[in-house]
Write a structure and sequence with these properties.
Blueprint lengths: L16 E13 L5 E7 L2 E7 L10 E10 L14 E12 L17 H6 L1 H4 L3 H23 L3 E2 L17 E3 L7 E3 L5 H9 L4 E9 L11 E10 L3 H20 L7 E4 H8 L13 E2 L17 E7 L13 H14 L5 E6 L2 E3 L8 H11 L6 E7 L1 H16 L10 E5 L4 E4 L6 E3 L26 E6 L2 E8 L4 H11 L3 H12 L9 E7 H9 L29 H7 L9
Parallel strand pairs: 6-9, 11-17
Antiparallel strand pairs: 1-2, 1-4, 2-3, 4-5, 7-8, 9-10, 10-22, 12-13, 13-16, 14-15, 14-16, 17-20, 18-19, 20-21, 21-22
Helix pairs in contact: 3-5, 3-12, 6-9, 7-9
This protein binds one RNA strand of 78 nucleotides through strand 1, strand 2, strand 3 and helix 1.
RNA sequence: GGUCCCGUGGUGAAGUCUGGAGUUCACGCCGGCCUGUCAAGCCGGAGGUCGCGGGUUCAAGUCCCGUCGGGACCGCCA
């Protein structure tokens, strides 16, 4: 039907008779004998000069046949790649009339209520921004696949109907028709299957895997999302990181045209010390500054005896917040924020030309104040925020404030990838059992140097678990798995899981290991998040063709909908009346 | 489960604090004019359950309570 796309024509095509197909983006009428019709498809826009009276309106689908000609002098549109030419002597065929769209099919729809965009997603996706995102995503997918294949990974598909597993995220359940009362679960990840593929000798597995988790939605979380899931045998951590890095960097290059440098690596401990979070955004400074020793023998009661005292310096030159406008009100609000995050309080110091201004200034000795300024490097106009608490709380509170005060928008600044390694094996304590909880999952290998601490000081044990972080977004995580039963038993023991419990909960998964499990490890990263950052989008919904709203509905299809009673009967289900 | 923000012709906003006739602006839509525009221009017109329900009041878009929808976040996401 068409000889060219709407973004294709250039001066070199002048004289050709061509046919274009697309949607009417805009029509500028100058009386019956002259109208400019901007024809749009996913490649761009071409101006067509129509000199007969044809009724074409916004979003009509048309085929226009005409002759490519140079635009008259002074009428070139430098904003369009096709702006030096136009289509003349146009014959217009209306392929399909269209109602006026509920919102403009251009950049103005960025301002339209997202519910309305989702209700008419097929129109929203017609827009240049969304087409760009869809196509960027496709390039990333393709590059990731190619990079994995190139490294000898074999794509294996795993089932969507799986048994429910005891640990982890809440699952979506699917009732069994043949066995009323029994349910499948939709996979929150292919974790078990990919490890069994290692037992099966697949050696290097990958999959673009759809994962489903029935947890509350966020800007970076949907019920269903895609992971590049991989697992490999006879490897150590370096092998896994290298394989994933290769894939992620190839994806980044495909998306942006620039191959990022090798991905740097920091330990979890260092990430917490310097940035106060386990997913640090390396695009900006404001790192946490150690002050504990400065106050070793302080008179200031709030600092005396604190396990950890740290500070961040918010520079006056700061694109995110304007410190100079900070009055008492904003500073009080910062303190409230710190308390909400878990600090007992927050000490602030405004640095001025002739010293400092702070409610606690009179409690600090001259040498203490001087040392604060030296260590933080604070200059006049800067704001210093200090927290004194347990090491963890101090880091976390300042890390959050650092992000609040300094984190640039996602589309700004360079891409800063970082591997965070040596995550703690255990994190926190289970409210039910009083035992430590697994940091990653219960099959993660403890760090060899720390294995002997497992029974005596479990919370100090590091693991061979790692996260990949990009500009403060957690892209994914992985670990070297335990393949050896004695070690697995020791970890279970710390978790408070007896041999009997383990057999009951994980038997179907662990018994196969007895037939010969190779040492193995793997990783999975979220495609949606990677694509969102590469696309400069704050929200993964912008890179998903048909996403759900925060409450888990789809305004276009109205999903979820009540089930037909006959369907329920067939499944042996009855819906309880809503509790009142 | 919780905190906060938003809901006003098809779209985006102002009006809400401080109650007084559905008032205003821009885009879109319909009609007319218009031969070089390009998010064309000019003239005219249509289009509303101010999310929904209840309350206070002589009077509610505006105040109060509830509810629904959208968004950001906490919890949750091994």
């Amino acid at each position: 039907m068409r000889t060219h796309t709407c973004g294709a024509l250039r001066l070199s095509d002048i004289g050709q008779t061509v046919s274009l197909c697309g949607w009417v983006a805009r029509r500028r009428e100058h009386g019956e004998k002259l109208a400019f019709v901007d024809l749009r498809d996913h490649t761009g826009i071409t101006q067509c000069v129509v000199d007969n009276d044809v009724d074409v309106r916004s979003e009509y689908v048309v085929r226009i046949t005409g002759v490519v000609r140079a635009r008259p002098e002074g009428t070139v549109n430098s904003a369009l790649p096709t702006g030096e030419v136009e289509l003349g002597e146009c014959v217009v065929e209306v392929l399909r009339k269209a109602d006026p769209p509920p919102f403009p099919i251009d950049a103005r729809a960025d301002e339209v209520d997202e519910g309305i965009r989702l209700q008419h997603r097929y129109l929203d996706l017609r827009r240049e921004r969304m087409q760009r995102n869809l196509r960027l995503r496709a390039r990333v997918n393709s590059a990731v696949r190619a990079a994995m294949e190139e490294q000898g990974f074999v794509e294996v598909e795993t089932p969507m109907l799986v048994p429910s597993t005891p640990e982890g995220a809440r699952e979506f359940l699917v009732p069994s028709r043949k066995e009323p009362g029994a349910f499948y679960a939709l996979p929150q990840s292919p974790q078990l299957f990919k490890q069994l593929l290692m037992v099966a000798g697949v050696d290097r597995y990958y999959q673009m895997a759809r994962c489903l988790r029935d947890e509350d939605l966020r800007a970076d979380r949907q019920y269903e999302f895609m992971q590049m899931d991989m697992e490999m045998s006879f490897v150590n951590q370096d092998d896994v990181l290298a394989a994933v890095s290769h894939s992620v960097l190839a994806a980044a290059e495909a998306a942006t045209g620039v191959r990022p440098p090798d991905i740097e690596r920091i330990t979890w401990r260092e990430a917490m010390e310097r940035f106060g979070v386990d997913k640090p955004d390396l695009r900006f400074g404001m790192e946490l500054v150690e002050l504990t020793d400065v106050f070793a023998s302080t008179e200031f009661k709030a600092f005396a005896g604190a396990a950890s005292i740290k500070a961040i310096c918010v520079p006056a030159q700061n694109t995110v917040v304007d410190i100079s406008s900070f009055g008492r009100n904003q500073l009080d609000r910062l303190t409230d924020r710190a308390k909400k995050i878990g600090a007992k309080g927050l000490v602030w110091l405004k640095v001025t030309e002739d010293g400092i201004e702070s409610p606690v200034a009179k409690f600090l000795s001259e040498s203490e104040t001087a040392e604060i300024l030296v260590r933080t490097g604070a200059q006049a106009g800067d704001l210093v925020l200090i927290v004194a608490d347990s090491w963890m709380t101090t880091c976390e509170v300042l890390g959050q404030l650092r992000n609040d005060m300094g984190r640039p928008p996602v589309h700004e600044g360079p891409y800063r990838y970082v591997w965070v390694v040596e995550f703690p094996l255990f994190v926190g304590v289970s409210a039910e059992t009083g035992q430590p909880k697994p940091g990653h999952h219960p099959f993660t290998t403890p760090h060899p140097e720390d294995i002997d601490l497992m029974e005596t000081d479990p919370m100090a044990v590091r693991s061979i678990a790692y996260d990949l972080v990009l500009n403060g977004w957690e892209l994914g995580s992985g670990s070297i798995r335990i393949h050896e039963p004695d070690l697995q038993r020791r970890v279970f023991s710390v978790l408070g899981i007896s041999d009997e419990d383990a057999a009951k909960k994980f038997g179907f998964f662990l018994n196969p290991f007895n037939y010969g499990a190779p040492p193995h490890g793997g990783f999975a990263f979220g495609l949606d998040r990677l694509v969102a950052v590469l696309a400069g989008e704050e929200n993964i919904r912008e890179v998903i063709a048909f996403p759900k709203t925060q409450s888990g509905t789809d305004p276009m299809t109205n999903a979820p909908v009540a089930a037909d009673p006959r369907q329920l009967a067939e499944l042996g289900l009855r819906v309880l009346p809503a509790a009142t």
